[in-house]
Design brief:
There is one protein chain. The chain has one domain (2-146): Rossmann fold (3-Layer(aba) Sandwich). The chain is of the alpha/beta class and 149 residues long. The two termini are 25 Å apart. It has helices at 19-22, 27-41, 53-62, 82-91, 129-139, 141-144, and strands spanning 2-7, 44-49, 69-73, 95-99, 121-124. 32% of the residues are buried. It has a 5-stranded parallel beta sheet with strand order 2-1-3-4-5, sandwiched between helices. α2 (27-41) packs parallel to α5 (129-139) and α3 (53-62) packs parallel to α4 (82-91). It binds 1,3,4-trihydroxy-5-OXO-cyclohexanecarboxylic acid.
Length: 149
């Protein structure tokens, strides 16, 4: 099984960026933790970050036939991007939305996710552990997922 982890804008600054909200772990630290856990359960992962919306769209499109599940922290694009939503919908690869912070306990504009209706589910508020929880969810996706829409 192959899982594609995609990270959106400003997540390259984790570790320095608003540590009270996002903690001290860097994206590299998080990737290491995910890789360690994936190795234990025998899952292959790919881990990418970009600040560009179109690049996320292209990566989602290119995942067809290569990855079984996408784990997506779309960061700010979660709340704004019709293009990402349409890409997820178009490829029909089970996608898990994740966030480090509990977006529902923050500013109102973060309560709305444009991608949530086309994702299998959302994991938010567990810091770097959101990424590990998504791995566990991805492994069981066939058993537990409800088809979006
Ligand atoms: C985030 C939450 C988003 O609202 C925010 O724009 C981010 C990070 C998170 O992981 O908590 O950049 O996706």
């Amino acid at each position: 099984m192959k899982i594609l982890y995609l990270n959106g804008p400003n997540l390259n600054l984790l570790g320095q960026r608003e540590p009270k909200v996002y903690g001290r772990a860097t994206l590299g630290d998080i990737e290491t933790k995910v890789r360690e856990r994936a190795a234990v359960i025998g899952i292959e992962i790919e881990f990418r970050q970009t600040n560009l919306e179109g690049e996320l769209v292209s990566w989602i499109q290119q995942a067809r036939g290569v990855f079984e599940v996408i784990v997506l922290n779309a960061a700010a694009y979660t709340h704004t991007s019709v293009a990402l939503r349409d890409a997820i919908s178009a490829v029909a690869i089970p996608t898990i939305e994740i966030h480090l912070s509990n977006v529902h306990a923050r500013e109102e504009f973060r309560h709305k996710s444009l991608i949530a209706p086309v994702c299998c589910g959302q994991i938010a508020g567990f810091g770097p552990n959101s990424y590990i929880l998504a791995l566990e969810a991805a492994v069981n996706i066939n058993a537990t997922s409800q088809s979006p829409q």
